[in-house]
Specification:
This protein has three domains: about 70 residues, no CATH class; about 110 residues, Tetrapyrrole methylase, C-terminal domain (Methyltransferase, Cobalt-precorrin-4 Transmethylase, Domain 2, 2-Layer Sandwich); about 45 residues. The protein is about 45% helix and about 10% strand. The chain has a five-stranded mixed beta sheet with strand order 1-2-5-3-4, sandwiched between helices. The longest helix has 14 residues. It is elongated, with a radius of gyration of 22 Å. The termini are far apart.
Length: about 240
């Protein structure tokens, strides 16, 4: 892709090398790039996968350059995460980029629960084929928050679909996996209610519809900022009554 873009814009290398750098060859390629830099050459890192160094193996190259005391600069370009945030209509005064969730359901729900109390919009990248499942898990972990799915940003078929996590999960479950690169955004949590017994039991009943007692207690304890042991004991009572 880099070569095609350079050819389209008439950018020539004039004998300078074009070197592939990615996760699978970084260990072998790094010494060569380090030597170029120490010899006084300028090395330009061009990412084929969006903004360089954001969810991209190039950050390891940046770490190496900084460690070596070599000057590092950047030319900003379109960033899918930030562009999606501006188009989502979700709060942008506070936001967090969380990268790709794990592909497996159990690991993904555990990963998502780490972000359930983040007081800002959370931004994820996701595979199109895992989108419906991820949205379903998000609804289970985060509750039915407002969200947005942005795809193919800056391209011909750019699209942003907004709605609740439940509505979006239903849409993509029925419509199937969309095409293109996906950014998934989730609104901040609503203010946490006072943790009365009624509030705890209501939250547990909802969580226990899809989760084990242990997992439901963990999520509710995190949401209400309560000791996990206390919530677990209450979850056993609520489960027995269901």
């Amino acid at each position: 892709m880099a070569r095609r873009l350079m050819d389209m814009h008439g950018i020539t290398l004039n004998g300078r090398p074009l070197i592939a750098y990615h996760d699978h060859n970084a260990a072998a390629t790094m010494p060569k790039l380090r030597q170029y830099l120490h010899d006084g050459a300028t090395v330009v890192y061009l990412s084929d996968a969006g903004t360089p160094l954001v969810a991209d193996p190039g950050y390891k190259l940046a770490q190496e350059v900084i460690k070596e005391g070599i000057a590092l600069s950047s030319t900003p370009g379109a960033c899918a995460a930030v562009m999606a945030l501006t188009l989502s209509g979700l709060p942008s005064d506070r936001f967090m980029f969380a990268g790709f969730p794990p592909p497996k359901r159990e690991a993904r729900r555990k990963f998502l629960s780490e972000f359930s109390a983040v007081p800002g919009t959370i931004i994820f990248y996701e595979s199109p084929r895992r989108l419906a499942g991820c949205l379903t898990d998000m609804a289970g972990v985060f509750g039915n928050r407002e969200a947005a799915v942005a795809r193919e940003l800056t391209k011909m078929f750019e699209e942003v679909r907004r709605g609740t996590l439940t509505d979006l999960a239903a849409h993509y479950t029925e419509a199937g996996a969309p095409k293109g690169e996906i950014v998934l955004l989730v609104a901040p949590p609503a203010p946490v209610p006072a943790a009365t017994e009624e509030v705890i039991d209501t939250a547990l009943r909802t969580a226990l519809q899809t989760l084990s007692v242990k997992d439901a207690a963990r999520e509710v304890a995190t949401y209400l900022n309560l000791p996990r042991k206390v919530v677990y004991e209450r979850a056993l009572v609520v489960k027995e009554a269901l």
